[in-house]
C-alpha cells in the first residue's frame, strides 16, 4: 500500500515547510508516501463559497485513481487517538488496497461530489487549525502511527 496526502495551496511558512519535509522524509522509511499540493484557485474573490468548493472538488477528484480509498480530513469525521489511528492504518494495509488518499480541503471544506466519493472522514481534533498546520500534524501522525506499529520508542505509551 502507499499513502498520498492531497492539500489545497502551498505552504507559505518556511519553518513549517522544513518540519513537513523532515517528517515526510522520516515517513518514507516506512511506506511509499506522496504529498501533493493542488494549486490555489485564481480570482476566488469572484466566486461564492459553494463555487470555490466545487472547483476545488473537481481538482481533487482529478487526482484520484478508481481504486483509491479516499479519506477526508473533516471536522465531523471519526476521532482517533494515536494508537487507534495506527490500528486504522493497519486495517487498511491488511485489506490489500493499493493507495490510501487523505485530503485536506480548502478554506470552506469539500464539495458534495468529494463527500460522495469519500470512503471515510477523520477529524484530527475538535479544535480548528489552519490548513497550513494540519499538513504538519497529519504527516506527523502518519509517522507516529508507523512507529507505534513497529513498536519503536517515538510514541511513549
Describe this structure in words.
The protein is of the alpha/beta class. The chain has one domain: SPOUT methyltransferase, trefoil knot domain (Alpha/beta knot, 3-Layer(aba) Sandwich), CATH 3.40.1280. The protein is 42% helix and 22% strand. It has helices at 14-27, 49-62, 82-94, 112-117, 131-149, and strands spanning 2-8, 32-38, 69-79, 99-104, 120-123. It has a 5-stranded parallel β-sheet. Helix 1 (14-27) packs parallel to helix 5 and helix 3 (82-94) crosses helix 5. It catalyses: pseudouridine(1915) in 23S rRNA + S-adenosyl-L-methionine = N(3)-methylpseudouridine(1915) in 23S rRNA + S-adenosyl-L-homocysteine + H(+).
The CATH architecture can be given as 3-Layer(aba) Sandwich
CATH superfamily: SPOUT methyltransferase, trefoil knot domain
Helix and strand run: EHEHEHEHEH
Rg over alpha carbons: 15 Å
Structural class: alpha/beta
Mean pLDDT: 93
> What percent of the residues sit in helical stretches (DSSP H or I)?
40-55%
Q: Largest beta sheet, briefly? A: 5 strands, parallel
Number of strands: 5
Distance between the termini: 27 Å
Poorly predicted residue ranges: none
CATH class call: Alpha Beta
Q: Could you say which overall geometry the principal axes of the C-alpha atoms support?
A: globular
Total domains: 1
Percentage of β-strand residues: 15-25%
Strand order of the largest sheet: 2-1-4-3-5
Function: Specifically methylates the pseudouridine at position 1915 (m3Psi1915) in 23S rRNA.
Subcellular location: Cytoplasm
Main location: cytoplasm
Binding site for S-adenosyl-L-methionine: 73, 105, 124-129
Amino acid at each position: 500500500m502507499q499513502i498520498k496526502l492531497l492539500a489545497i495551496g502551498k505552504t507559505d511558512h518556511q519553518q513549517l515547510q522544513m518540519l513537513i519535509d523532515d517528517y515526510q522524509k522520516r515517513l518514507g522509511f516506512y511506506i511509499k508516501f506522496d504529498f501533493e499540493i493542488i494549486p490555489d484557485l485564481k480570482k476566488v474573490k469572484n466566486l461564492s463559497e459553494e463555487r470555490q468548493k466545487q472547483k476545488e472538488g473537481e481538482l481533487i477528484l482529478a487526482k484520484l485513481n478508481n481504486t483509491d480509498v479516499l479519506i477526508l480530513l473533516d471536522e465531523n469525521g471519526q476521532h482517533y487517538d494515536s494508537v487507534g489511528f495506527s490500528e486504522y492504518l493497519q486495517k487498511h494495509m491488511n485489506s490489500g488496497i493499493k493507495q490510501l488518499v487523505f485530503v485536506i480541503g480548502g478554506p470552506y471544506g469539500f464539495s458534495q461530489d468529494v463527500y460522495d466519493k469519500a470512503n471515510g472522514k477523520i477529524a484530527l481534533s475538535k479544535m480548528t487549525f489552519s490548513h497550513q498546520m494540519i499538513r504538519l500534524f497529519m504527516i506527523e501522525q502518519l509517522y507516529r502511527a508507523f512507529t507505534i506499529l513497529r513498536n519503536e520508542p517515538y510514541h511513549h505509551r
